[in-house]
Amino acid sequence: MNVADAVLKRRSIRSYQDKPVTDADLEAIISAGRWAPNAGEYKMSVIRNKDLIARINERTLDAMRNSGNEFLMGRAALPGYLPLYGAPVIILLSGPKEMAITQLNCGVSVQNMLLQATELGLGSVFLRSPSYALNAPANAALSAEAGIPEGYQMECGIAIGYTDDETKFARMEREPRGVVAYID
Ligand SMILES: Cc1cc2nc3c(=O)[nH]c(=O)nc-3n(C[C@H](O)[C@H](O)[C@H](O)COP(=O)(O)O)c2cc1C
Predict the structure, then answer these.
(1) Would you say residue 171 lies in a domain?
(2) Residue range of the domain that includes 51
(3) Could you tell me if residue 176 is inside a domain?
(4) S-S: 72 plus which of 25, 31, 64, 170, CB 3.0-4.6 Å?
């Protein structure tokens, strides 16, 4: 698969099979993330522990329900909604709190991983929602358990696994986003 194919084929997957991702595939995805453009330190927490994933899922759902944000509360209220979608692997990216550029370092790394997962035939989705739970002072212990260092904040992440139902919680029509202006 070439890059253009992966860009078009990638879509957000929100339902996963209970089937592990191979170590070789996971290593390839992590490596793709680490080869992304970068302008500062960040950390990847690669989480496969089912119990920890379940607890992050639960706290994220709780944070979404209590966010006061109409979109997040609406998603959390959908029957059967799991913010981590039952994925067998999640990778959470974090970086220094005081560095505004942390968001970009983490975001570009996740995008590389999404494309690599697509090439490998795996489903994936960009995750911001766990940050609502893990960056809250009340969840400091859980955040530490998830490998997020003191002074860091979780910016974004990726859920990875074999696709179960690509229509679940999905927008089926994909379209190019953003506005383009050619200034010649
Ligand atoms: C900054 C950012 C944050 C996102 N956070 C989430 C998230 O927490 N949960 C989720 O299911 N999707 C999340 N997404 C995925 C978008 O909802 C998705 O990319 C968008 O709806 C377009 O659909 P597509 O990825 O299938 O093309 C996020 C995407 C971006 C760029």
Answers:
(1) no
(2) 3-161
(3) no
(4) 64
Q: What are the angstrom distances between the C-alpha of 16 and each of 21, 50, 160, 164? A: 11, 13, 8, 5
Number of domains, the chain: 1
Assessment of whether the complete model's pTM goes beyond 0.85: yes
Between the CA of residue 89 and those of 37, 49, 155, 184, what are the distances in Å? 23, 8, 17, 45
Any domain includes 170: no
Measuring from atom 1 of ligand 1, which residue has the nearest CA? 128
Ligand 1-lining residues (CB < 6 angstroms)? 11-12, 14, 125-129, 171, 174
pLDDT digits (tens, 9 = 90+) for 89-143: 999 999 999 999 999 999 999 999 999 999 999 999 999 999 999 999 999 999 9
